[in-house]
Amino acid sequence: MKNLTKFLSEVRVELSRVEWPTLNDFIGSTVVVLCIVAIFAVFFGIVDKGLSTVAQYIFSLGK
């Protein structure tokens, strides 16, 4: 129990040293991440559609 108490007090000290982002920084970072995710989703959607079209064409030649 003594170790747990010491650990939690050290965690509290370390968290007080953290420089937390401002609300504007947080919102800006979130917007950037969402935009990048959307770009990658569109890109991989296009690649998936292209590869599935090619695969369907290749497999239809064997019939």
In words, what does this structure look like?
The chain is mostly helical and 63 residues long. The protein contains two helices and no strands. The longest helix has 39 residues, at 23-61. It starts with a helix and ends with a helix.
- Based on Cα principal axes, name the global outline: elongated
Question: Number of helical runs?
Answer: 2
Radius of gyration: 25 Å
Straight-line N-to-C gap: 72 Å
The total strand number stands at 0
Could you give the topology of this structure?
Elements: H1 2-17, H2 23-61
Which terms would index this structure?
63 residues, elongated
Brief synopsis:
The protein is mainly α and 63 residues long.
